[in-house]
Amino acid sequence: MATVDLKDVKKIYAGGVEAVKGVSIAIPDKALCVLVGPSGCGKSTLLRMIAGLESISAGTVSIDGKVVNAIGPTERDIAMVFQNYALYPHMKVYDNMAYGLRNRGTPKDEIDKRVRETAKTLELSALLDRRPRELSGGQRQRVAMGRAIVRNPKVFLFDEPLSNLDAKLRGQMRVEIKNLQRALGVTSVYVTHDQLEAMTLADQLVVMNAGLVEQIGDPLDIYEKPASTFVASFIGAPPMNLLALTRGGAGRMPAGSPEEMAAVGHGSAAGSTALASAAPMLTDGSVVPFAPQAAATLGFRPEDADVTHGAEAPGGALAIPAAVEAVEPVGAESFLYCAAAGTRIIVRVHGRATARPGDQLRVVVRAEKLHWFDQAGKRVG
Amino acid sequence: MSPRVVFPNKILPYLLLAPQLAITLVFFYWPASQALYQSMLREDPFGLKSQFVWFDNFARVLADPNYLNSVRVTAVFSIATAAVAMVTALLLAVMADKVIRGRGLYRTLMIWPYAVAPAIAGMLWLFLFNPSIGTLAYGLRWLGIAWNPLLDGGDAMVLVVAAASWKQISYNFLFFVAGLQAIPKTLIEAAAIDGAGPTKRFWTIVFPLLAPTTFFLLVVNTVYAFFDTFGIIHAVTGGGPGKATETLVYKVYNDGFVNLILGDSAAQSVILMVIVIALTAIQFRYVEKKVHYG
Ligand SMILES: Nc1ncnc2c1ncn2[C@@H]1O[C@H](COP(=O)(O)OP(=O)(O)OP(=O)(O)O)[C@@H](O)[C@H]1O
Ligand SMILES: [Mg+2]
């Protein structure tokens, strides 16, 4: 029904805080765009600018091709679901839902029809005569959704609508929101700081950090090819393992054992000395093969790693010596927390883990599963 | 329920309560019963002997056209004072809520009138509106308005209502500001997104949510207008001209202390006491458990 276009949008608050520092996003019609990022990165600010609740310091916001910078929230024809739901406490559920329609002069019987229809889809029919304080958290959430849906607006805006619900209900509502949004086909912007919610809901995922967009794209593309170390550590749970690389000075011997070098397919032990002087190393001194020239950080996902107790490792893979610190079985999978190269890395293994805390082993990652980032944290290769 | 704590000492609790009880007895029950007793007595013109007449005084007071006039004056005065004080305070509070720069200063200035003693407030208004020396009275005359609160009962009423409500505005303002601040901003934003303009938002969201505050202030203001405005009336009009601004409280004073009709005056104060008790009961019944939302 509508596209939403942000062009170089900035927000500077009265106190001088620059909350949004130039964001451009083109949200296609009917898409569910999720803004995700850590607390304070400007997600709510951006959403509120789309809603018209905050003035726009620079740039333009367009809805359906029309610049709406100067149009107030009352005329933008959007609907918003607030984190605290913002239900009118003195009105019954019915009136909460009818309020927006009444303000727009919809005929009475039309209002009644639409409110009852919406209540039916959201299973609120039995609650229409209650006041918000007589509802559970989940029911309030539904009413807030209903109030947004019933108006049939051009755009839905959600600001962390599920964050006040318990984990189970959140899962249910997530699916429900997704289905509703699909069925209604209304362009939506959804703010969350929960990466799981972001991944599962988004047609278009926008990862934000400190007032700037880090990456925009399909959630799985972002998962597979994070554009920066920030995105890599933010998307995916547990987050991607990131290891800093150093370039050894001339004549400095790598601490990696000769057979390790052999194991990663890097020639003989004798050759490794010469190679090491220019080759990137982990902070524990072990030389890392395959690294592109500019790489300053190495990353791999916990689910892409494996562990081996033996000395032999497959070719075309990186093997990092590690000590198991803790094992966390969660049923279908287990997480190994290992100390390696001066940091902690997490490895996810299927089923029951054979490793025990205190074991010395090697974490093996296939070369094509490695991610490389440069000094500035941007992806290389 | 937690188990009751039992103290072994039987006398100590009574000793601890004694001062409070003594104060209540000496300063409330004793005068109140005196008033009640007095209201059933009639004294001879020289105050030499008195006679017990049961409810005669009440019957006479309630049949007295002057008393009924006073009831009417009190009703007009109280309703007007409460209305003016509350409407003005609400208006100012809504505007104060919009002020961003100098908010603290604005609010502080708004609260000052509350610190002015009633009689002094009355004097201020009297000086401003005195037909012969008042600056503002001069302005009114210049505008062609015949203004003389010393002769015209209506003008006098306007003047005491203005003075009485002026003093109460600050108090109401404080409560309204607090009430407005307690309304979540997201509600107003939600209403704006729901297509309601500022006026509509005020009447459909803000005002209903202020209802508990408004009701509380209504009771407080009524009690104020009934009982705490003696000083203002005394200073500004002395109940006149004629009996145009003689409220019930002022009449008690006039009959009892000026005209020395003690029996009638006592009967009137007993009636007032009943009114206070009724108002307090209403206050406890509704205000204590307010209308809570959320
Ligand atoms: N009214 C305001 N005045 C000044 N600064 C503000 C205001 N509102 C937000 N900020 C600042 O702008 C930045 C972004 O805030 P915003 O609320 O958009 O964060 P967010 O991404 O929604 O965070 P969260 O996930 O915690 O809700 C923060 O640094 C915040 O302190
Ligand atoms: Mg937020």
CATH superfamily of chain B: MetI-like
Low-confidence stretches of chain B: none
Q: Specify the structural class of chain A.
A: alpha+beta
The CATH superfamily of the largest domain in chain A bears the name P-loop containing nucleotide triphosphate hydrolases
The CATH class assignment of chain B is: Mainly Alpha
The percent range for strand residues of chain B is: under 5%
Query: CATH class of the largest domain in chain A, please?
Result: Alpha Beta
Question: What is the end-to-end distance of chain A?
Answer: 39 Å
State the order of secondary-structure elements of chain B, H for helix, E for strand: HEEHHHHHHHHHHHH
How many helical stretches of chain A? 10
CATH topology (fold) name of the largest domain in chain A? Rossmann fold
**Which oligomeric state applies?**
heterodimer
Bin the helical content of chain A: 25-40%
Helices and strands, with pairings:
The complex is a heterodimer of chains A (381) and B (294).
Chain A: E1 4-12, E2 18-27, E3 32-36, H1 43-51, E4 58-63, E5 66-67, E6 78-81, H2 93-103, H3 108-121, H4 137-149, E7 155-159, H5 167-184, E8 187-192, H6 195-201, E9 204-209, E10 212-217, H7 219-224, H8 229-234, E11 241-247, H9 258-263, H10 269-276, E12 280-282, E13 297-300, E14 305-308, E15 317-329, E16 333-340, E17 343-350, E18 360-366, E19 371-373, E20 379-380
Parallel strand pairs in A: 3-8, 3-9, 6-7, 7-8
Antiparallel strand pairs in A: 1-2, 1-4, 4-5, 9-10, 11-12, 11-13, 13-19, 14-18, 15-16, 15-18, 16-17, 19-20
Helix pairs in contact in A: 2-3, 2-4
Chain B: H1 12-38, E1 41-43, E2 50-52, H2 56-63, H3 65-98, H4 103-111, H5 118-129, H6 135-142, H7 153-181, H8 185-193, H9 198-209, H10 211-227, H11 230-236, H12 248-258, H13 262-287
Antiparallel strand pairs in B: 1-2
Helix pairs in contact in B: 1-13, 2-13, 3-7, 3-10, 5-7, 5-11, 7-10, 8-9, 10-13, 12-13
